[in-house]
C-alpha cells in the first residue's frame, strides 16, 4: 500500500494550490478561522467541529485529487455488474479519479467548489456514496481514513490560519500549473511554490 505520508503530503499540496487559485474560497476559509479561533492563539482540536468550510474544502480537494486514483481488486465470486459478467478472480481496476468527476453525478465536476458539500444530502466518503470514493469502500477501504482526515485538517488549518499566501514573482493565478502525473498516486506535475507572510498577532516560534 502507498505510505500514509505520501498520500497526505500530496493532498496538503493540492489543497493549498486549489485554494490559492480560488481566492473567494481561500478568503472564506481564512475568515472562518479568524471567527472561530481568533488571531491570538493557534488552532486546537476542539475548533474543528466549527471549521465546517475548511473541512468541505478538504473534501473537495479529495474529490478532485484523490491520491490513490486507481483501486485494484480481485473478484471473490462471479458477479454481474451493470450487465457485464465478471468472472471469479478477475482483476478489476476502479477508476476513483474518473468516478469523482463523473458529470452525471456532479454539477460542474471539473470546478473546485467546496460549497457543493454544504447542500443537504451531499455525498460523503464514508463508503455508501459510490460517486465519491477517495478512501475506497467496503471491507478493504482505507483503515487510515480518520488519521488522514485529522492530519489533513490540522495541517491545512495551521497553514491558512498562521499565514497569508502569495504566488512568487507576480505570477498570475491563471499561470499556476494544475496538471498532475497520473499513475498509482497523483502528485502535482510541478511543485507548488507560494510565499507565506505571518498573519497572527503573536510570535509563531
Ligand atoms: C489522504 C490520505 C489517504 C487516502 C486518500 C487513502 C486512500 C486509500 C485507499 C483508496 C485505499 C484502498 C485501496 C484499494 O482499495 O485498492 C487505502 C488502503 C489502505 N490505506 Fe489509505 N489512504 C490515505 C492515508 C492513509 C494513512 C494515513 C494510513 C495509515 C496510517 C493508510 C493506511 C492504509 C492501509 C493499511 C490500506 C490497505 C487496506 C487493505 O488492503 O485492507 N492510509 N487507502
Automatic annotation (TrEMBL):
Domain of life: Eukaryota
Name of encoding gene: LOC104607702
Listed name of the protein: Cytochrome P450 84A1-like
Keyword field: Heme, Iron, Metal-binding, Monooxygenase, Oxidoreductase
Matching Gene3D superfamilies: Cytochrome P450
Native organism: Nelumbo nucifera
Tagged with keyword Oxidoreductase: yes
Amino acids binding heme: 142
GO molecular function, one term: heme binding
Cofactor or coenzyme needed: heme
This protein's record includes keyword Oxidoreductase: yes
Family: Belongs to the cytochrome P450 family.
SUPFAM superfamilies in UniProt: Cytochrome P450
UniProt xrefs under InterPro entries: CYP450_84A, Cyt_P450, Cyt_P450_E_grp-I, Cyt_P450_sf
